[in-house]
Automatic annotation (TrEMBL):
Protein's UniProt keywords contain Phosphoprotein: no
The entry's keywords: Membrane, Transmembrane, Transmembrane helix
The protein, known as: Bax inhibitor-1/YccA family protein
Lineage: Bacteria, Bacillati, Actinomycetota, Actinomycetes, Micrococcales
InterPro entries: BaxI_1-like
Organism, scientific name: Cellulomonas fulva
Residues that span the membrane, as ranges: 56-75, 81-98, 105-125, 131-151, 163-189, 201-224, 236-262
Record PANTHER family: CONSERVED TRANSMEMBRANE PROTEIN-RELATED
One Pfam entry name: BaxI_1
Length: 264
């Protein structure tokens, strides 16, 4: 094929053509071989190179292990590096979010950067409010587990209307957060991360953000289910793991901030 798009494609490439020619050739398989083929177990998704739930679970676990390890090292060695981790994590998060093909290396580096960010920030909070990090971790796991149970029960369905509502709500929350950052940079107000997130507003805003994160988990779980049932390539498990990790990090930060407000 002259068109490089088709010639380089695993579906339309030369390899596929050779396979088609082989199938079209006269069969020389004997009866014993045919019987063995019919008796063989059916090919699993892993055999055919498709994404499975195990792939997503294993890769998500690997990313969380990298995050926790880098966070623990930062906590002990250099908590002040959290600023660098925040910037690098943001950049890598945007790069991975807009990449068409998942990059295991970039996704793993994102987990390490976020670990540096969370490790330093958690050390700061723990110094002010002893025990708060453990509470935030338990709260994060509880919300994530509850979202999974609700999704598995089928009581909340991820419909197009639900997804549109979530996108609008997250867009509004993003605008709110950016406005708050601008006001904080110009020295307007105070409190937890700026005037619009002070103690008076902080709890309500935090609970709203936790609700958004729980809704994001439902969308994430639905996306994983669609990918597995639709026969997505195994490499897309990295994208699924990346999405789940992003939601977990966001949820942990919001719960940590809410607990700090209650401690005050």
């Amino acid at each position: 094929m002259a068109n490089p798009v088709f010639s380089n494609s695993p579906v339309f490439g030369e390899k596929q053509q050779r396979q088609g020619a082989t199938l079209a050739a006269p069969s020389t398989i004997d009866a014993a071989s045919l019987e063995h083929m019919y008796d063989a177990p059916a090919a699993t998704p892993r055999d055919t190179g498709r994404m499975t739930y195990d792939d997503v679970i294993m890769k998500t676990g690997a990313l969380l292990a990298l995050l926790v390890l880098s966070g623990a090292v930062t906590w002990v060695v250099a908590p002040g590096l959290w600023i660098i981790g925040a910037v690098v994590g943001l950049v890598l998060g945007l790069v991975n979010a807009f990449k068409r093909e998942p990059s295991p290396v970039l996704i793993s580096l994102y987990a390490v950067a976020q670990g540096v960010f969370l490790g330093g920030l958690s050390a700061f909070y723990e110094a002010q409010y002893p025990g708060i990090v453990g509470q935030a971790v338990l709260g994060t796991l509880a919300v994530a587990a509850t979202s999974l149970v609700v999704f598995k029960s089928g009581k909340v369905r991820v419909t197009p209307k639900f997804t549109r509502w979530l996108i609008i709500a997250m867009g509004g929350y993003l605008v709110f957060s950016l406005l708050n950052v601008v006001l904080m940079l110009f020295g307007v107000g105070g409190g937890q991360y700026g005037p619009l997130r002070s103690d008076n507003w902080g709890i309500l805003v935090g609970l709203f953000a936790v609700g958004l994160a729980a809704a994001c988990f439902l969308v994430d779980f639905d996306a994983v289910k669609r990918g597995v049932e639709g026969g997505a390539p195994r490499k897309m498990a990295w994208s699924a793991a990346f999405g789940l990790t992003v939601t977990l990090v966001w949820l942990y930060l919001e719960i940590l901030r809410i607990l700090a407000i209650f401690r005050n």
